[in-house]
Amino acid sequence: MRNNEKYYLPGGKIEANENNLDALIRELKEELNIKLSKETFKFVCSVEDVAYPDNQNSVLLNCYYSDISNYDLIKSNEITDIKMLPFEDKHLMAPAVVKLLNLIEKGVVDV
């Protein structure tokens, strides 16, 4: 969470000379202090929805899965909170994250 009232998944903007996975690996290191290799990720889907809290724009999430259950997540100064939330707490999540979770629940995408 970054000074918002809703939770997003870890990640961020792609910088020059980066692809999706390079950006994700960098953001996970910056935000949660975990280092993963490209081989550990599985592409899930892309989701576009309202860019919370800026409801005037949209956001595109390129979503990947990796098992991080054996990692200790350490919050960096870039974010204000870390939580592992169950699907039932979707009301606490940004619209694009809710859209992704709905696709997973319906079996449209698989993680």
Automatic annotation (TrEMBL):
It comes from the Bacteria. InterPro entries: NUDIX_hydrolase-like_dom_sf, NUDIX_hydrolase_CS, NUDIX_hydrolase_dom. Keywords: Hydrolase. Residues 1-107 form the Nudix hydrolase domain. One of its GO terms (molecular function) is hydrolase activity. This is Nudix hydrolase family protein.
